[in-house]
Each structure stands twice: as structure tokens, then as C-alpha cells.
Amino acid sequence: MLITTIVMMIIGTNLALSLGMVGSLSIIRFRTAIKEPRDIAFLFWAVSLGLACGSEFYVAGVLGSVLIAVVLLAANLDLYDSVSFLLVVRGKEGELDLDGVQGAIKAKTRTAKLRMRSRSAGSDEVTFELRLKSKYEHDLVEAVRACAGVDSVNLVSYSGESIG
Do both 66 and 37 map to the same domain? Predict the structure, then answer.
């Protein structure tokens, strides 16, 4: 949206600039196989800068680029330095202290959601989706392992993507 605002300020009512912009965008869109939307945005940004320089709107190009760069840096800044994980806890049926496990998880994580609870012959299994700082992984596993009825604890890095 910021890039479009810059382009609209530059083009204004100039028919020649608008036709040039349409031509350059058609080359980018239909001649190049780009799969990532972020890559298309960077190309559109480069075209808008070229349009600004070519039509001598240097101030709009520089100020727009600075603003877009600040927005991109803020969007890529991870304020919490946290990583998503799946925590799978297994224990004997009826012996797994779910309240104790949830208490240990809440004490060591930013957010945690119970995603699955499974009971099969002789065993209970619970899966949590959680976010925590990557350097506290060991502390979390040890705290959960110390809970009553826990046989095994598996911590899996999770990106939220499905494969297949």
C-alpha cells in the first residue's frame, strides 16, 4: 500500500508515466516466474523508485523508500525472540497429572494452548502448542519431566506449516 501511494503521487495525472508504469509491471508479472509475494513487492518497489528518479520526483522516492524500509524493519523485528514448539507429553493412563503439567508449562512459556489429548490402552498423551525463548527449552523439558506420571517429553520445533 505504501508503494502504491508513492506511485500514485508520482504519476498524478501524467498519461505517459501511467502507461510506462503499466508496461513495466506487465513485464515483471508475466515475463518472470516469481513465486514469493515479497519478491514481487521488492520488484514493484524498485520500479516505483525508477519511476520517481526518471520523472525527477527524488524527494518522493527517497522519503517513500525510507518509510518502506522502516516498516520492513519493524515487521521483521521479533520483539520476543520466541519460537513455536509442539510439546508432547506421555504418561500412564490415570497417573498423568495434567494440572501439574499445565502449571509447569505456564511458568516457563509465553503462551501455551492444549491442542490434543489422546487416551489409548494404558497411556495418556497430551500435545501443547507453545511459544518460548529458544534458550529455555531445556528448563521447560526438565520442569515437565518432574511432574507426576510423566513417562516421556518430546519438544518439537513447529513452524505452523503443513507438508503434503
Answer: yes
